[in-house]
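Page 37, continued from 36.
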């Protein structure tokens, strides 16, 4: 929770800081694009390295890189800020892959059942919503009393505390421990698993499509609501209250997922299909709505699906993807995700068109969900990894 607190604390004010430095919108767009490209390019290599050299080490690396990115953002030099965005992009890849890989390994090494994994992810998503609300309130107070750059300094404190907790309480765990397999061979193994295991490919497809839509939504919801708000009155939108409402919706979605996957025992693939279909509808209907309140409700519905999505996809990855390459595969899935977001950011696409694009991506994710496994198992991907290892060893001996 400490690392997500640091992320939520400074995230909402990145644009505000860049704007306070007097950068033009095109320059700010370049900074954001640099972050997404960095995540797509460097994240794949770092993910595979984490599987081989230890997830704990790379969780600590996350705290160092993200702290550095928060410190660098205090500079008003455009080129120094580009370096900060590169570090931030790498950190984002680590945040959404290595921590999960470490947790899943620790979960099974302590003898917990796979059935309780869904509950763990559901509680984590609920807790993330609470942390986001707390971080938003704290960031707002800091900006009011200490300026727009203060949340970034506070975030460094959270990351430093997280690093101490990791050092003092976490055990190291690994994915691919073979001395004969280097980082690039691990990437090769991961790519082969993705191409040969249809279940892993389906997980990657829905992850890339859904999360790309989610990141684009972060950029479009404010301007979209403002376009409807101006029609009714000239007062400003309560962005803080809207953000808090979104976080509460995510928390409710996570509780709903826990009920669906627990007491109701609905198959994960069925939950996925329903989640993606509802998400698609929630971002397609705004194109036909000219009412601010109904538009807000539709966006709340989309955030509810986010609360369902995160524990859902985490459980799928844990049960289907082999331990050897879990972080590697997770980061490979982020490459198309980041490319989609970069395309939207650099294209001259209107806000309604962006919303339409997101709705289309989510509908494609709904179609892909029919290839998700009914009964999840990592045995198939583990067999593929073992086969590739034997092939590499044979080539080396020859």
């Amino acid at each position: 929770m400490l690392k997500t607190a640091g992320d939520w604390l400074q995230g909402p004010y990145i644009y505000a800081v860049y704007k306070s430095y007097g950068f033009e919108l095109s320059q700010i767009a370049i900074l954001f694009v640099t972050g997404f490209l960095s995540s797509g390019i460097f994240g794949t290599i770092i993910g595979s390295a984490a599987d081989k050299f230890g997830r704990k080490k790379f969780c600590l690396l996350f705290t160092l890189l993200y702290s550095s990115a928060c410190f660098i953002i205090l500079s008003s030099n455009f080129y120094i800020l580009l370096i900060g965005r590169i570090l931030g992009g790498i950190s984002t890849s680590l945040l959404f892959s290595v921590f999960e890989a470490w947790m899943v390994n620790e979960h099974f090494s302590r003898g917990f059942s796979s059935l309780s994994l869904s509950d763990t992810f559901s509680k984590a998503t609920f807790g993330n919503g609470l942390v986001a609300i707390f971080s938003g309130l704290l960031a707002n107070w800091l900006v009011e009393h200490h300026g727009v750059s203060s949340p970034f300094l506070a975030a460094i404190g959270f990351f430093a505390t997280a690093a101490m907790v990791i050092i003092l309480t976490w055990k190291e765990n690994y994915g691919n421990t073979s001395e004969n397999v280097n980082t690039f061979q691990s990437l090769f193994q991961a790519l082969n698993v993705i191409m040969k295991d249809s279940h892993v490919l389906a997980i990657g497809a829905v992850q890339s499509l859904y999360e790309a839509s989610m990141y684009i939504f972060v950029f479009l919801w404010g301007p979209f609501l403002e376009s409807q708000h101006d029609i009714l009155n000239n007062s400003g939108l309560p962005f803080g209250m809207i953000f808090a409402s979104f976080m509460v919706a995510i928390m409710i979605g996570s509780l709903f997922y826990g009920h669906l996957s627990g007491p109701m025992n609905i198959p994960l693939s069925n939950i996925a299909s329903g989640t993606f279909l509802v998400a698609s509808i929630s971002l397609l209907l705004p194109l036909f709505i000219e009412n601010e309140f109904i538009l807000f409700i539709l966006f709340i519905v989309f955030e509810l699906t986010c609360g369902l999505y995160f524990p859902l996809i985490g459980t799928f990855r844990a049960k289907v993807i082999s331990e050897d390459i879990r972080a590697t595969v997770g980061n490979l899935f982020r490459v198309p995700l980041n490319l989609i977001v970069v395309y939207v950011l650099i294209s001259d696409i209107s806000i309604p068109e962006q919303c339409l694009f997101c709705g289309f991506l989510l509908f494609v994710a709904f179609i892909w969900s029919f290839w998700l496994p009914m009964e999840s198992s990592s045995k198939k991907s583990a067999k593929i990894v073992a086969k590739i290892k034997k092939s590499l060893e044979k080539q080396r001996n020859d």
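The CA atoms of residues 65 and 87 lie 6 Å apart. Flag for discussion at group meeting. The chain has a mean pLDDT of 84.
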